[in-house]
Amino acid sequence: ALPVVAIVGRPNVGKSTLVNRIARKNEAIVHEMRGVTRDRSYHEADWNGVHFMLIDTGGIEMGDEDAFQKSIREQAFAGANEADVVIFLVDGRTGATPDDIEVARVLRKSGKPVLLTVNKLDNPDKEDEALWEFYSLGLGDPRPISASHGHGTGDLLDEVVEEL
Ligand code: GDP
Ligand code: MG
């Protein structure tokens, strides 16, 4: 079986945009599962000759506040469980939210390698300040990327394949 890389994070941080950037372009979704905590899509990807499966842990259903928190926690847990490496994606424009802190806690406990990645940093000259507060998540150095522009995604993939 191929090694598995899961992209975990709150809704709207840019998980699907990142998947679209790094998955094989003309590859249809390999497999989809539906359900509040199992809603995810699988995509084949490769980087410098290393072939892997990418999971987009999308589609967390909006419920009441408690159900929402719980589903985020379960998504993070399920994603990390299946993965060899986790890309934990956060939004550099919103800063670290309580949901990010919750997901970080779950991921730290998973024991899996976690690459904390800060998205939506579209201007590489201005990223330092936005990065700083994510050290508080306790997952080491945050990596700046812009999934929509492509800045930083090559460096991220270099790190991903090093962990596989
Ligand atoms: P998901 O819910 O985590 O899968 O997030 P999406 O990939 O659907 O993205 C949510 C929104 O953020 C969309 O409007 C994207 O266009 C936007 N977005 C994603 N990546 C970036 C980025 O690098 N920069 C900016 N400015 N917007 C982004
Ligand atoms: Mg999505």
TrEMBL record:
Protein name: GTPase Der
Residue stretches making up the EngA-type G domain: 3-164
Function: GTPase that plays an essential role in the late steps of ribosome biogenesis.
GO biological process: ribosome biogenesis
Subunit structure: Associates with the 50S ribosomal subunit.
UniProt keyword annotations, A-Z: GTP-binding, Nucleotide-binding, Repeat, Ribosome biogenesis
Portion of the full-length sequence here: 2 to 165 of 441
Annotated GTP 1 binding sites: 9-16, 56-60, 119-122
UniProt record similarity statement: Belongs to the TRAFAC class TrmE-Era-EngA-EngB-Septin-like GTPase superfamily. EngA (Der) GTPase family.
